[in-house]
Amino acid sequence: MADKESKYSSLILQLLNCLFLMVTFFLLASAAVFAWEKIEFQETPTREMFPQFDAVIIKDEATMEIKSNGEALLTQHRIMKIFSDPDKRYSHQEIPFNNSVEVIKIKAHTIHSNGNRFSLDEEDIRERSLLSEYILYSDAKVKEFYFPRVDTNCVVEYEYQLLLRSLLYWGDWFFQTHLPVLSSKYTLITPKRFDFKVKVLNDKIEPKIDFHKGKKVFVWETSNKNAIRKEVFMPPASDIASRLVFSPLSFRFDDEIYSSKNWNEIARWFWEISQTKTIPSQKINLLAFRLTSGVDSKEKKIKAVFDYVQEHVRYISVAIGTGAFKPHPCADVLEYGYGDCKDMTTLLITLLKTIDIEAYPALLSTKGHRRLLTSMPKVKQFDHVVVAIPLNGEYIWLDPACRNCQFGQLPFEDQKASALVIKPDGGELTLTPETEEDENVTRTFWEIKLNSDGSVSGNLTIQATGQEELAFRASLAELKPQRRRKALTGFLSFWLVDPFLVKYEFNNFEEKDSNIFIQASFVAGGFGVEQQERLFLPVNLNTQNYLNLMFPHKQRVSSVVFDYKFINVDEVTLQIPAEFQVEHLPGAVRLDEPFGLFESIYKVEKDKIVHKRVFVRKELFIPVAEYGQLKYFYHQASGEDNKRIILKRKRSTGETNK
């Protein structure tokens, strides 16, 4: 009996060893997609070839192998020449992963000009959580490393491999980056009967298609791609870069296969995975009824629930796909007091469901993310989730993640954004509403008394609505009183010498339902510059003292995409002492274009100078063809803002007789 057991044990051991060798061979065979390049250093690019850049990408390539079980193996390989890297932008690399994306391997090395190679040690690869202090998102992690012995004019090369357990994480491939790319190649290996959609954007690159060992092999390859030029108010890089976009017709999730041929199927999948989290518990029921007890109208009930979620759940920014796609249970969100956009919208929808109010999650592609490709159904095209509530034939759009938003208000990032409203029977593609300029207004009122010695005293009032108000709240609401005072003093010091706040109030910053306004009384040691009995006073007492910096380049590559429309109105009343007289006032100006308006008016009323300035942003998208007109508009407006009022000191009677 003992001999039999010994034989069986020996046989099992041999089988395990054999299995281990097979697995090892499979992993090594899969991992060895790219071999280290033999690099002739004298043939690498030089700084003189790319004087505007600190680095250049010599080779950028990836292989995506899709398995028959719905998983995929992604291998990425890059060679880069670093001319200089004072900020460690290129020396440091991060590779994000989570429970559905596993890092299989990382290897890297540095090559100096003398041929010396320095390989990355495995112990120098560190793993850290992106949100270590939040247990609900502990799976969102990165592996990071620094290339060893990076020096001026060195070459770095690295390769890493990821196992994607779902094609939901299948990302785009960018042939262009913010660095020049000399060679870029993407290889896709699929089972023979695997279906998908693919699109090349902002370029013309045809794939080479082949068959190898019963699999389809697609290769897209290009070379010498210019860097994406960084410009102020440019479109998202994904909208202008040469890139490949993929959309699988099915994907695996939680050990099930889901069809994704159209947006209705995407919506039904998201509805299914999120609805299990919207079953109200007793605690949720009690909370919903407590919040809405005694509230009569449907809209007021929605507001009461929205206010609670907005104020009691802390928003944690985790883009869709970075963490789990599935929302966390509402009980956990309430217990921990924080959540990402999916969690907050799910909690809000669940509370509303308890009081029989219908509400839907809506996936958003926010401004700055990317333009939605409607022909390519894919969850990764979205980066945010909000709530859409049908009421009186329209939707009330709510973003509980926006802590300073009033009820029914969306931040500009969410406005005119492509949205997929998730319903039980499918999805509805639509656009979120966008505010007009008269809904986003800042008004400043200055009353300044100029003394004969050049010192001043005065009052300032700032009022704001809409997105302008949100900007003030975002910068000031969380500050302690002393920091607010410091910020306001800094604002005054842009024009006044040694300003001192005699009195100040920040009103309604704790009351979201009321518009904020700031009031201040101040004194200052000086205002303007006095030269040879003349006092030169600034006229640009406004919140837009940056117009001259907006568009410095004569030409532009990309269209201008502004964030939101607005109106700024600035009114100044300047009382001048008897010792001065007005020598020069700038003339009235009105610049009216389809994309904007600028107006500046002056008048004298007895001993006072009154100046009113109006600036209106009418349009958000300005094509490249109209850039010259836009730049000239801003140049003219900036020129008017930089003009001066000139006061001349009166001579005394004795001086006049002399």
Oligomer: single chain
Judged by helices, strands and strand pairing, the structural class is alpha+beta
What is the straight-line distance between the termini? 134 Å
Q: Number of helix segments?
A: 11
Question: What fold name stands as the CATH topology of the largest domain?
Answer: Jelly Rolls
Unreliable segments (pLDDT under 50, ≥5 consecutive)? 1-32
Main sheet makeup: 8 strands, mixed
What is the total number of structural domains? 3
Strand order of the largest sheet: 5-4-8-2-1-10-13-12
Share of residues in strands: 35-45%
Give a written overview of the molecule.
This protein is an alpha+beta fold. The protein folds into three domains: 43-248, Sandwich (Immunoglobulin-like); 262-431, C8orf32 fold; 438-649, Jelly Rolls (Sandwich), CATH 2.60.120. The protein is built from eleven helices and 39 strands. The protein has an eight-stranded mixed beta sheet with strand order 5-4-8-2-1-10-13-12, with no helix packed on it. Strands 27-28-25-24-33-37-36-35 form an eight-stranded mixed beta sheet. β17 (314-315), α6 (330-336) and β18 (338-339) form a beta-alpha-beta unit. α4 packs across α7 (341-354) and α5 (298-312) runs antiparallel to α7. The chain is globular, with a radius of gyration of 31 Å. 33% of the residues are buried.
Short précis:
With 658 residues, the chain is α+β, with helices and mostly antiparallel strands. It is built from eleven helices and 39 strands.
Topology:
Blueprint: H1 2-31, E1 55-66, E2 72-82, E3 92-97, E4 101-111, E5 117-119, E6 126-129, E7 141-146, E8 154-164, E9 173-174, E10 181-191, E11 196-201, E12 208-212, E13 215-225, H2 237-240, E14 243-248, E15 250-253, E16 256-259, H3 263-275, H4 282-292, H5 298-312, E17 314-315, H6 330-336, E18 338-339, H7 341-354, E19 360-365, E20 384-391, E21 394-398, E22 418-423, E23 426-431, E24 441-450, E25 456-464, H8 466-476, H9 481-492, E26 496-497, E27 500-507, E28 517-524, E29 526-527, E30 529-531, E31 534-538, E32 560-561, E33 566-575, E34 580-584, E35 589-593, E36 596-605, E37 608-617, E38 621-622, H10 627-641, E39 644-649, H11 653-657
Parallel strand pairs: 1-10, 17-18, 24-33
Antiparallel strand pairs: 1-2, 2-8, 3-7, 4-5, 4-8, 6-7, 9-14, 10-13, 11-14, 12-13, 15-16, 19-20, 19-22, 20-21, 22-23, 24-25, 25-28, 26-29, 27-28, 30-31, 31-39, 32-38, 33-37, 34-39, 35-36, 36-37
